[in-house]
User: Which sequence fits this backbone?
């Protein structure tokens, strides 16, 4: 939702240039990405049923075209007779929403700390750089496991935890960029002209950081989607009846022998999503020509 | 070199201290742990006894100090559910995890590095391109999706492989495969890029110009420099395998290891087990990272010299 408004605000030529640079695969990913985002935004109108609407008479029915399918349930139904298509659309909404919100929190936090560390230097920089090192050293899945166990799987908690997950990448890269930029003539000139620290940070530094931030946002988004799906799959993320793609696969496992579509449909969707995100992320990174350490 | 070692060591100690502290305060964020364990139907006296038993009566600072002393003395508490020392439970589960992760590391290293080099050297050939496409898809596939789909195909439909446990070699195929895939793909892509970088260097052109065969150029000159670059990501890969990969895969294949233990502890709120498990895995990760840093400094003089200058 953030990205779509941002895209509208950009001039038309920006999108056109992006399209021209893309090869076939990336163009496919762009279109598929737009379709996914569209499906997410329109989920309430596209879904033939409510995501939690049960129908005990038509439980565990296979998708359209298989024996025993019920008309109207295009992708079949689950163990409570809920429509898989409707659930998957809403689950995609949850997954993407959490990914965006989490990546956004991580970006705000990491960028703020990165700029602070890079501009102020000294003790504060040592402290923030130390925190970055520690966060890199401790695997985040463990922190998330601990946090979710303690604080419960509330949606707000989940987003906050996942948001914190990404701060370190942003902080590390932003800090490095700011240190490089700090001694550039245009920053020093602004300093001499009497600009305040805030003004330098927002008016002069931030615009130069936009392109690495966009790339990191894409990478962080895909990491958070993966982390959320994993936690939800394990039963430690989203709480029922709300479903995310990960929790649908996790719960569908119990019915795998008799009703494999409960697992296959969300699996395919998650695969499509991660492929699209990765193709676009790689494309943006190559285009911006930014070297990020892959984790 | 010595100052580099000391620096790595201090960094590791500080990291572990922060982890210990964060884990302590995090587990107490949720209020009184007793209310979680015991639920509502507890009379006031037993509740008071439990609070004393678990040492929750003193203020935070005293508890924290006692906790640190306990860690120093190897006391990590008792599982709230199994009523046994967490260390005993943990070490029972260590073997299966080491076998699973060890298998995945072997598979990953044995396949990814040759495949990555091949894909770089023969980059115009169809086979190399197909391999890289496969690696791309493999990298994008979440391991729990891969594991679930493998389970569906090989255990339920074809009925070829067992779905749970670890008693025979056949039990290892799917978990090791599902665990390795993402890291295999990542390392292969990374090795390929590192090799391509090396292949473009002047000293390789020189080596070729003085008449070495293609194979000799690759083995004698390119390989070593590629491996130096690759080594820097192997550490990240191993820690990823240990921490997040094993947690997911063990839980899917009912593999009675550390990951399975931690997920169940998180679900059942068995704090002492979770607390120790997180600490132990963090220790493992920090130790591995430090070792990799050292190995890196050992093979690449620029790293250790740079460390001395700064």
Assistant:
């Amino acid at each position: 939702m953030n990205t779509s408004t941002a895209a509208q605000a950009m001039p038309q030529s920006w999108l056109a240039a992006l399209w021209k640079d893309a090869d076939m695969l990336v163009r496919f990913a762009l279109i598929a990405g737009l379709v996914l985002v569209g499906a997410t935004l329109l989920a309430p109108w596209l879904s033939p049923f409510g995501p939690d609407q049960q129908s005990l008479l038509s439980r565990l029915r296979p998708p359209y075209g298989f024996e025993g399918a019920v008309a109207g349930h295009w992708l079949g139904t689950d163990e409570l007779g809920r429509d898989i298509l409707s659930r998957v659309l809403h689950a995609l909404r949850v997954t993407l929403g959490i990914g965006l919100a989490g990546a956004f929190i991580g970006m705000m936090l990491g960028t703020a700390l990165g700029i602070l560390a890079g501009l102020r230097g000294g003790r504060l920089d040592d402290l923030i750089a130390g925190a970055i090192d520690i966060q890199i050293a401790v695997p985040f899945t463990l922190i998330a496991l601990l946090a979710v166990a303690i604080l419960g799987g509330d949606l707000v908690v989940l987003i906050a935890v996942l948001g914190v997950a990404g701060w370190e990448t942003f902080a590390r890269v932003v800090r490095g960029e700011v240190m490089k930029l700090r001694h550039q003539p245009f920053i020093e000139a602004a300093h001499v002209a009497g600009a305040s620290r805030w003004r330098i940070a927002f008016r002069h530094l931030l615009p130069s950081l936009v392109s690495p931030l966009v790339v990191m946002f894409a990478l962080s988004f895909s990491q958070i989607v993966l982390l959320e799906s994993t936690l939800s799959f394990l039963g430690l993320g989203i709480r029922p009846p709300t479903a995310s793609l990960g929790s649908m696969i996790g719960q569908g496992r119990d019915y795998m022998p008799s009703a494999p579509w409960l697992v296959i449909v969300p699996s395919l969707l998650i695969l499509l999503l991660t492929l699209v995100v990765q193709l676009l992320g790689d494309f943006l990174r190559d285009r911006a020509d930014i070297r990020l350490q892959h984790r | 070199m010595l100052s580099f070692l000391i620096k790595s060591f201090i960094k590791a100690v500080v990291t572990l201290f922060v982890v210990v502290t964060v884990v302590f305060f995090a587990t107490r964020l949720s209020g009184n742990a007793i209310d979680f364990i015991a639920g509502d139907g507890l009379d006031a006296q037993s509740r008071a006894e439990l609070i004393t038993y678990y040492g929750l009566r003193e203020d935070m600072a005293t508890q924290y100090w006692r906790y640190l002393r306990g860690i120093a003395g190897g006391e990590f508490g008792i599982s709230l559910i199994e009523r046994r020392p967490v260390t005993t439970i943990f070490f029972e589960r260590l073997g299966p995890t080491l076998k699973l992760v060890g298998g995945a590391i072997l598979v990953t290293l044995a396949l990814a590095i040759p495949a990555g080099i091949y894909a770089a050297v023969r980059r115009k050939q169809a086979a190399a391109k197909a391999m890289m496409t496969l690696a791309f898809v493999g990298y994008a596939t979440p391991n729990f999706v891969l594991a679930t789909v493998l389970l569906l195909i090989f255990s339920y439909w074809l009925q070829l492989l067992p779905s749970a446990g670890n008693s025979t070699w056949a039990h290892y195929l799917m978990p090791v495969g599902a665990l390795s895939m993402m890291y295999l793909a990542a390392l292969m892509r990374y090795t390929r890029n590192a090799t391509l970088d090396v292949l473009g260097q002047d000293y390789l052109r020189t080596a070729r110009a003085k008449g070495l065969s293609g194979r000799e150029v690759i083995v004698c000159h390119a390989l070593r420099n590629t491996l130096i670059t690759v080594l820097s990501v192997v550490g990240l890969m191993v820690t990823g395998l240990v921490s997040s990969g094993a947690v997911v895969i063990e839980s899917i294949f009912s593999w009675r290891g550390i990951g399975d233990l931690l997920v169940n502890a998180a679900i059942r709120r068995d704090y002492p087990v979770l607390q120790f498990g997180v600490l132990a895995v963090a220790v493992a990760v920090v130790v591995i990272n430090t070792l990799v840093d050292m190995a890196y400094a050992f093979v690449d003089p620029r790293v250790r010299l740079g460390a001395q200058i700064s």
In short: The longest helix of chain B spans residues 214-252. Chain B touches chain A through 50 residues (CB under 8 Å). Residues 61 and 250 of chain B are 37 Å apart (CA to CA). The radius of gyration of chain B is 24 Å.
